[in-house]
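Entry 12.
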Amino acid sequence: MIRDKATGKPRGFAFICYEDQRSTILAVDNLNGIKILGRTLRVDHCEQYKAPNADMSKVDELTAAIRQEGCAPVSLTMEQVAVKQEKELDKKAKKRKIKEKKSKKKKKKRSRSSNSRSNSD
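Predicted 3D structure (tokens):
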């Protein structure tokens, strides 16, 4: 987000970096012209983007790191994707087990209460 140097207030525009050209095109197509909080967004490609000054002495650590490494997301390897999917499956399995235990407890309570009713008759 670009800010005014004197006041520090946002100037109302920003530059966004995407991993690939396809993502950039999709963002422009999907976000240009939408209204958020009563204001219309204008999203377009930057034809004459000029990188900020390379003077790193006046920049905080986070900004320096972003300028050095870039801001595109890091793509995962196939192994990392597989590990992530396994973790998600484990979480789902744990949730399923918890639900099954709860439903078994409810069934036991129902059967006990129905047995006690029939015995009292």
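Annotation: Helices lie at 21-31, 61-69, 78-120. The two ends are 75 Å apart (CA to CA).
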